[in-house]
Q: What sequence folds into this?
């Protein structure tokens, strides 16, 4: 449940070309030369792909508009989810049906995931206070779950005031990389390499 | 209920402030022209916000002309030519809202309020009739809003989200009418929803002490068990969230003009208004005799 712009490390007003460049850079980091990827890398790649697709589809179709999709940007293929049908409804924007299904679940079966999905639907409806309460309950019931913690975190950020904070935060990331930055980076890399016994740049 | 959606002057560029003031004066003129001289007394910044939001997404560059204030001939005031459609829309919404607000006060207010509002009612009814001819959809939206609101408020103990729902939905529908194309309508719908919710909550916060004293409905009463600080923190959390959501949607709108004015209102005006109300409440609490 993270902001796709944060995943790719780009500001909200990033151009499509810069976005593609950021995507390529991140993808190179996680793809190893021999084609074998660790599980972590696979998951991270998926996150990056989802974020990229989300931003592109949001921009091409702003009719999704003010109902920003990043709260629905989670994986629908989570096999451990017992509410995958509700998740798919939320992903496709069918909030009324999702709410109906959620309300139909008896209280003893309302797990942390139920509260999280209920919070998501309430958020889409604009019931921000109840959405917050639900997210808080989900995070409390399962503190180790990153999805719920991230949703709660995002809400708390917005509830703390200063609307500029949530918009201008990543402006310094993914921006320009000057020659000074490159040179600095190379010198640091060379020093680190030499400390470990190698030598990145022969003449430094 | 009115007068909360204002710009924050200290952070406005002089040219933006001049434009803002000119639009305020232009709305005054439009009210006077369409609905008579007494309609001008109902002027407030909320409807200026509506006019600016409507004009901001339309093409055309307004021509600014100097003039004099009708109430104070010693004061200069400007006129924006080229925004007639949007100003007329804002004026129409103002008249319809005023009428229903009067009805609400007559039903719920104390004896002095009832009397005052009953006197003004015929003029308001006439203005509303004129406005209704031009904007029948607006009348439907607002009468629906008021009816739902009074139904919901019959139950004293409801969630704040449910209590704010009619106002939020109402402003959402009205702001949607200010846009022409589908993507902007959706964005404006979301901005309207969030700002409507914010106005409802800020009004509830402003009237909280009075409502507790008089036994009137107030959605914040459901949290009576909280201390004053906790209540403020809780309601500020929701209001801040509303502002952030509105700003998120605002970023995506393709504005043709007046973007800095609306940015100032959403990003700075609303937070400062809520801060002022909290300070005012705190001052009142601190000034109470021991």
A:
């Amino acid at each position: 449940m993270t902001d796709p712009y944060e995943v790719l490390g780009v500001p909200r007003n990033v151009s499509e070309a810069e976005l593609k460049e950021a995507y390529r850079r991140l993808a190179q980091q996680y793809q190893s030369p021999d084609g074998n990827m660790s599980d972590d890398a696979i998951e991270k790649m998926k996150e990056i792909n989802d974020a990229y697709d989300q931003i592109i589809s949001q921009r091409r179709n702003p009719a999704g508009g003010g109902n920003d999709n990043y709260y629905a940007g989670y994986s629908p293929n989570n096999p451990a989810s017992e509410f995958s049908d509700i998740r798919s409804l939320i992903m496709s924007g069918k909030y009324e049906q999702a709410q109906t299904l959620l309300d139909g679940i008896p209280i003893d079966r309302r797990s942390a995931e139920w509260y999280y999905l209920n919070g998501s639907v309430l958020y889409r409806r604009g019931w921000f206070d109840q959405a917050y309460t639900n997210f808080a309950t989900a995070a409390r019931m399962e503190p180790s779950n990153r999805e719920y913690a991230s949703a709660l975190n995002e809400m708390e950020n917005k509830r703390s005031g200063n609307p500029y904070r949530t918009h201008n935060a990543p402006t310094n990331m993914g921006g320009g990389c000057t020659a000074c930055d490159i040179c600095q980076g190379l010198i640091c890399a060379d020093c680190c390499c030499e400390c470990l016994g190698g030598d990145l740049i022969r003449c430094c | 209920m009115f007068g909360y959606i204002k710009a924050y002057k200290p952070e406005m560029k002089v040219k933006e402030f001049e434009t803002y003031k000119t639009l305020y004066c232009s709305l005054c003129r439009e009210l006077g022209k369409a609905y008579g001289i007494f309609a001008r007394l109902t002027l407030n910044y909320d409807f200026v916000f509506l006019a600016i939001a409507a004009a901001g997404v339309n093409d055309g560059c307004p021509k600014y002309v100097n003039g004099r204030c009708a109430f104070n001939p010693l004061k200069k005031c400007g006129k924006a030519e080229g925004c007639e459609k949007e100003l007329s829309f804002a004026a129409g919404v103002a008249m319809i809202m005023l009428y229903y607000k009067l009805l609400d006060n007559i039903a719920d207010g104390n004896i002095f309020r009832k009397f005052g509002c009953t006197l003004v009612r015929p003029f308001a009814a006439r203005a509303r009739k004129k406005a209704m001819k031009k904007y029948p959809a607006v009348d439907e939206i607002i009468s629906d809003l008021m009816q739902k609101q009074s139904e919901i408020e019959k139950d004293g103990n409801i969630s704040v989200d449910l209590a704010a729902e009619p106002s939020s939905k109402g402003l959402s529908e009205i702001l949607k009418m200010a846009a022409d194309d589908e993507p902007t309508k959706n964005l404006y719908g979301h901005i309207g929803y969030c700002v409507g919710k914010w106005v409802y909550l800020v009004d509830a916060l402003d009237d909280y002490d009075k409502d507790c004293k008089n036994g009137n409905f107030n959605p914040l009463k459901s949290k009576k068990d909280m201390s004053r600080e906790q209540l403020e923190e809780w309601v500020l959390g929701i209001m801040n969230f509303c502002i952030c959501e509105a700003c998120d949607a605002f970023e995506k709108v393709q504005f043709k003009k007046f973007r800095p004015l609306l940015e100032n209102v959403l990003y700075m005006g609303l937070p400062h208004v809520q801060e002022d109300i909290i300070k005012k409440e705190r001052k009142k609490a601190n000034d109470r005799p021991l």
